[in-house]
Structures are given as structure tokens and as C-alpha cells.
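Protein record
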Amino acid sequence: MREYQVLLIMKDIPGVLSKISGLFSKRGFNINGITSGVSERDGFFRMTISVIGNKKIIEQIKKQVGKLIDVVEVQIFDKAKTIKRELILVKIKTDFKSRREVIEVAEIFKGKVIDISHESLIIELIGDLDKIDGFLKLVQKFEVLEISRTGITAMHRGETQ
């Protein structure tokens, strides 16, 4: 079993996200992560769903979701032909001594300090899952106060979809 990303293009109408999540729930599919937003087509929005499963489960998901009337396109992202990114915000408790070290770790990972106070700072980091996970491992030695992850968003490489 591995994680797959499923791309959905659907009509931008109220309730469509609820229909999608309801279908997953009824069929016993677990959504590992979900991102959505407007697409390049007027009146449609794009959703990337991360699901853990095998090829059989993923093909079943593709068929079931494709049957929904508001869904106009379903694709399974090919791992080798896909760019995947995630945004993470991490609030870390710091004092004068630890602040510099946290900032240095963030800089190594091309993260940005987007908020700083006397007691903490917030780091913004964008990257693939390995980069995000590597950063989180290094900052665990500090007191992580809060983490907010967007979930994976993905796009096919090259000109075609």
C-alpha cells in the first residue's frame, strides 16, 4: 500500500465536496489529505485527494467518483510525472538562545520566518513531503507549539494533463 494522489475537476456548485467525502466514507476509503481551489476553467474547481491504498482500490475510487454527475474529470497522478508540494506553518517556542538555531535550520530548508515574538516564531515552508518531514524531524528537539499543513497539491509535468 502506498499513497496516491487523485485529481478531480468538478463543477463549482455548493455541496459537491460533501458528495465526494460522503462517497469516500460510504465505500470505506480513507482520505489522507485533501486540497481544493479554483481551476483554470471558469465554473470549475480542482481537488487533489491523497489516499492510501493499492492499485485496485485506486481504480475503484476513480470509477466511483467518476460516476458523480458534478465531476467532469478524474485522474490518478503518476508518481514519476507529477510535481507535488505542501505548505506548512510551524510555531516553535524559542528564547534568545534557541532562536538563532531555529532560524538557521529554517534557512537550510529554504523556509521563511513569517512571525516572531519574544516567546516564539512561525516558520513557513513549502516543499515535497521528504523536505517537510526532514524539517519537522530537525525541529522536534525544540518545543513545537503548533503545526498547520495544507495537504498535498499536485500537477502533471509538461504541457499535457
About this structure: Strands lie at 2-11, 31-38, 44-53, 71-76, 82-93, 112-116, 120-127, 143-149, 153-156.
